[in-house]
Design a protein that fits this description.
41 strands; mainly beta; Jelly Rolls; about 725 residues; six-stranded antiparallel sheet
Length: about 725
């Protein structure tokens, strides 16, 4: 570790020695961790059950999917494929929350093996078989082109992802039955007492076995034995060749790639709805399918950091039904078009102590809610809006009633609820502070938003949920990356600005790095902390030298805690970031949904510059509540007595204060994470406690003896 201005002067000289100006880079993901984990979970279930998760029964009309579920993969009751990513992150102002994203990553979350700078076939989204031969409600009857069958859907290029180039296409295809061809062999189960001449005979490996003639099977079919069989055994034998029509595909719609900005200028809306009629009689079968496909091309197939996800398309509101018209583009739906926001002014998460110090300036006065009416032009709705706030594991609760507003319809993706006539719903206030629990280090709240129209028998309703956290860190990001951020040149520095309301302890930094092809981003760097100097990084106050890109052991999007050997007491504005030794991108996670580019700075040509990349970094300074290691803490307000732990920080074990154990021959020990999760519970009679199985991080230790209860904070650092 090095501190002070002498080190900073050395950094300046190192940066001046770089030949090229430090350059910000933003790349697509080389690996989708959410998709990979879900694929592994499903594969594990299928292996355990021995049954592949798929739907074989033909569907009946109508077919509809708005991808509003929390599933990573498409609904298997409707779709055959798992390649597209169902998410709430990549679509920009979608028709409703959730969309299917087509990109250059396969069903395991990795770049396709055949990915190239030349367009290649990437994701598919294929419907399960659909009965287009008949309809069944209100009565069963044949279906034909005269029934005005349409498939509609919304699409958007790029979204929050990477733009598809003009040669990177999105395609829709319809299936039909082609010529008859061999499909498989039909088999029969035959006992060997009908095959062998006598009970003394045996079939040996390599022998040829035919079905007996009286079974009526094709006498030219046979099976070669790989095992030994006797008189009482049974065997499956081929009987007949089964011939079935092949499945052929027609391309019925295609669009070329473009940027979201060009798309918006051309169409004046964020999503465009497409209406495709189903006209040809050859599609009206008992096993019709339709599918979307995209062609993608990566920026570079040689440089590992450029071999990343590219060419995103977002598809939403897929609807197939009969008795429709080309003008049938509306839906009797009230919905939220964006995810619920944080109630905090500048952050997604702040430490609870910082909130308690200045609660009025920590929360917003109001926040935007994007509520839309997808109904017919003449159909307004008396929309009622409210939100509720409930403390997790607590009794605090409040709610806000936004009243009723006459919500006008609109063409989806063009405008949202009017902020003038419906301000109580479009810009609702934060009408109460969160609870002020001064005996808590952390807490969280579930915020639920509701929109509804109950003026008719057929009630319309939608809801969305946000978890507001007050934990031991600051976060501008929402915890999931859409891209990766880096600065390419050796000697480059990046600084990320945060502001404390009151002095507190900075004991580490959580960082999430994207996984990349061939470990291209696993470059050495110095983790740094700066004080503020008139809105820019100033004095270097802490350096962790020669750090490596790492990931935590458990969880989705595993932030790794880089824990300081000596916690810092900080106040006001400070910066955390890095100095990198080599050329290349560290590829830290980048949240494109929450824009805090004004707090991201990079060093180039002897000057700090504000980032021009709209988004937030998945970097979170870790703040301890009243935690200054090496000092005793006073007895807290809950009656818990201070428990001394040695060493603290600990590596694989710590020792308990002997006085605490003297009250009882066997005391009960509990260790909790900073999120309140019980991670270790045991009875102890000796001083030493093994914590080698716990991950790095901050914990709360509680000891219950016969007469007293003790508590302490424990930092595990390896």
């Amino acid at each position: 570790m090095m501190k002070g201005s002498k080190y900073f002067t050395g950094l300046l000289l190192m940066c001046l020695a770089t030949v090229a100006m430090s350059q910000e880079v933003l790349t697509g993901l080389s690996f989708n961790e959410a998709v990979s984990r879900e694929a592994a979970r499903i594969a594990g279930q299928e292996k355990l059950s021995g049954v592949k998760q798929e739907n074989t029964a033909a569907l009946t009309l109508p077919f509809f999917d708005d991808f509003s579920t929390a599933n990573i993969f498409p609904d298997k009751s409707k779709w055959k494929d798992r390649a597209v990513y169902v998410n709430q992150s990549f679509a920009y102002f979608p028709t409703n929350i959730g969309a299917a994203t087509f990109d250059a990553l396969d069903s395991t979350g990795k770049i396709y093996a055949n990915a190239d700078w030349v367009p290649f076939e990437a994701d598919k989204l294929t419907s399960n078989a659909i009965r287009l031969d008949s309809v069944f409600d209100p009565v069963v009857r044949a279906l034909s082109p005269a029934d005005s069958l349409y498939l509609s859907f919304f699409y958007q290029p790029q979204g929050y992802g990477r733009k598809p180039e003009e040669w990177d296409t999105l395609i829709l295809e319809f299936s039909y039955l082609g010529d008859t061809a061999f499909a498989y062999y039909d088999t029969v189960l035959v006992p060997f007492n009908e095959i062998l001449p006598s009970p003394l005979d045996t079939i040996h490996p390599g022998d040829t076995i035919w079905v007996p003639k009286d079974y009526g099977c094709d006498t030219n079919l046979y099976r070669i034995s790989f095992l030994t069989y006797g008189w009482e055994d049974w065997i499956w034998l081929p009987c007949d060749s089964v011939m079935l029509p092949t499945t052929e595909w027609d391309k019925v719609w295609q669009v070329d790639g473009q940027s979201l900005n060009d798309f918006l200028q051309e169409n004046e809306r964020y999503f465009v709805q497409v209406m495709v009629p189903v006209l040809d009689p050859k599609y009206f079968t008992a096993s019709f399918h339709f599918r979307f496909r995209n062609y993608a091309s990566i920026a570079n197939d040689i440089i590992p950091s450029f071999r990343s996800n590219d060419d995103q398309w977002n598809v939403d509101y897929v609807y197939l039904n009969y008795n429709r018209e080309r003008s049938d583009t509306t839906y009797r739906v009230l919905t939220f078009s964006q995810r619920a926001p944080s109630f905090l002014k500048d952050y997604q998460v702040i430490p609870y102590k910082q909130y308690l110090a200045d609660p009025f300036n920590s929360v917003r006065d109001e926040f935007p809610m994007y509520i839309v009416n997808l109904d017919k032009p003449e159909e307004t709705h008396d929309a009622s809006y409210l939100y509720t706030v409930d403390q997790v594991n607590g009794n605090f609760r409040y709610w806000y009633d936004g009243g009723v507003c006459n919500l006008l319809p609109f063409y989806p993706g063009n405008t949202f609820q009017d902020t003038l006539s419906c301000r109580e719903q479009a810009m609702p206030p934060v009408n109460s502070l969160f609870s002020l629990d001064y005996d808590l280090d952390t807490t969280s709240y579930i915020i639920r938003h509701y929109i509804s129209d109950s003026s008719t028998i057929d009630i319309i309703v939608d809801s969305v949920i946000y978890r507001q956290g007050f934990y031991n860190y600051y976060a501008y990001d929402d915890g999931s990356p859409e891209a990766g951020y880096g600065i390419e040149n050796a000697g480059a520095m990046m600084a990320y600005r945060f502001t404390m309301t009151v002095p507190d302890t900075l004991f580490g930094v959580q960082m999430y790095f994207n996984r990349t092809e061939n470990h291209a981003n696993e470059l050495p760097f110095d983790l740094m902390v700066w004080r503020d100097n008139n809105g820019k990084p100033g004095e270097v106050v802490y350096v962790m030298e020669n750090q490596e890109v790492k990931w935590a052991d458990k969880g989705l999007y595993r932030f790794y805690p880089y824990l300081f050997e000596e916690p810092l007491v900080m106040t006001g504005t400070f910066y955390v970031g890095w100095l990198q030794y080599e050329n290349g991108s560290l590829n830290v996670g980048f949240d494109a949904n929450n824009d805090h580019a004004n707090n991201i700075m990079y060093y180039a040509e002897d000057e700090w510059y504000i980032s021009n990349r709209s988004g937030s970094l998945l970097i979170r300074p870790m703040i301890g509540s009243d935690l200054i290691l090496g000092r005793e803490e006073p007895e807290d307000k809950t009656g818990l007595e201070v428990l001394a732990l040695y060493p603290n920080p600990a590596r694989d074990y710590f020792e308990l204060d002997v006085a605490a154990l003297a009250d009882s021959p066997s005391a009960s020990l509990e260790i909790y994470s900073i999120y309140g999760q019980l991670v270790l519970q045991q009875n102890v009679s000796r001083k030493r406690v093994d914590v080698s199985r716990l991950s790095r991080g901050m914990y709360v230790v509680r000891l219950k003896s016969k007469n007293k209860m003790y508590a302490a904070k424990l930092l595990i650092n390896r």
